Amino acid sequence: MAASQAVAITGAGRGIGRACALRLAARGWAVAVSDVNGEAAAAVAEEIRQGGGSAVSARLDVTDAEAARDWVDEVDRELGGLTGAVANAGIMRVQEFLDLTPAVWREVMSVNLDGTFYFVHPAAARMAARGRGSIVIIASASSRLPSFATNVYNTSKTALHGLTRVMALELGPLGVRVNAVSPGVVDTDMWELIDRKRAALLGKQPGEVLAEAVARIPLGRVETPQDVAKVVAYLLSDDSDYMTGQNISYDGGMVMP
Ligand SMILES: NC(=O)c1ccc[n+]([C@@H]2O[C@H](COP(=O)([O-])OP(=O)(O)OC[C@H]3O[C@@H](n4cnc5c(N)ncnc54)[C@H](O)[C@@H]3O)[C@@H](O)[C@H]2O)c1
Questions:
Q1: Ligand 1: which residues within 6 Å by Cβ?
Q2: Which of 11, 134, 151, 191 is deepest in the core (most CB within 10 A)?
Q3: Closest atom of ligand 1 relative to the 61 alpha carbon
């Protein structure tokens, strides 16, 4: 399968990654969908093909550096050269700082930070060899706005800003752009977990924490996965071809830097 535009996305079996896959496919991109849940990834790829788009899928746990490199090499070949990559896979753990353990720290860092590096590094190498490409790293508003009991998650997302900047600096001269997107409160399974765990810690009712967070958003509504997919598609397109090294807040005005 060859296409002029090909993108690989991690953690795309549901939520934000899935929305990015569907939007990019609708715009004519050939999409390589991966997720640690291989069945979910396969279902998204099938949905794209049923809609007339072009997609392949694989089970990929981004904490496995070798598997990530192999998958990037495989889809780069199969899709005729990656021109886009979206590092989206991420996990959330909720506990107060004094209850944070080294095991939880390592678990979150290994997916959110190490896993992002394991994926974007081979993708960047492929793109640099051809002198063309755009990489989007999904960070989070929580990296700029510390929030209760999501300590290690926030830290991992802040580190992704650093990764974005150093990659942009070294890869810009090679024709590869690297930007981060920081969504706010997105209506996915991840926020369901945050709401439930924070409510338990704070003695609140289910739904209360989410409602309070949404009430603080100037644009007055929760963010959808499709909202995030719009800015990701923009960053992968030539409409943003003079932008690199940025961390784009896309959060309804939650964070105003
Ligand atoms: N939901 C939000 O409010 C929000 C806000 C800001 C940033 N984000 C970020 O957006 C990204 C997507 O989050 P979401 O809200 O869609 O969450 P989600 O939990 O709905 O989806 C995450 C996906 O990543 C996959 N995944 C988990 N561990 C993996 C691993 N080791 N390897 C490969 N895939 C793995 C899961 O199977 C799942 O399909 C994450 O990086 C998250 O941190 C989410």
A1: 10-11, 13-17, 35-37, 40, 60-63, 88-91, 111, 115, 138, 140, 183, 185-186, 188-191
A2: 11
A3: 32
C-alpha 257: how far from its chain's center? 21
First CA to last CA distance, the chain: 43
User: CA 62, 65, 67 angle in degrees (round to 5)?
Assistant: 75
Best residue among 136, 188, 217, 227 to mutate for probing ligand 1, ranked by most atoms within 8 Å of CB: 188
Residue whose C-alpha is closest to residue 170's, from 65, 245, 241, 240? 245
Determine the Cα–Cα distance for residues 231 and 137; give it in Å rounded to an integer.
12
Contacts with 28 (C-beta within 8 Å, 6 or more apart), sequence order: 3, 5, 53
Residue 122 gets which letter from DSSP? H
Structure confidence by residue, pLDDT tens digits, 225-252: 999 999 999 999 999 999 999 999 999 9
Atom 7 of ligand 1: nearest residue by CA position: 140
Q: State the pTM of this model.
A: 0.98
Task: Tokens for 130, please give them.
Answer: 């051809």
Architecture per CATH, domain 6-184+224-245, reads as 3-Layer(aba) Sandwich (3.40)
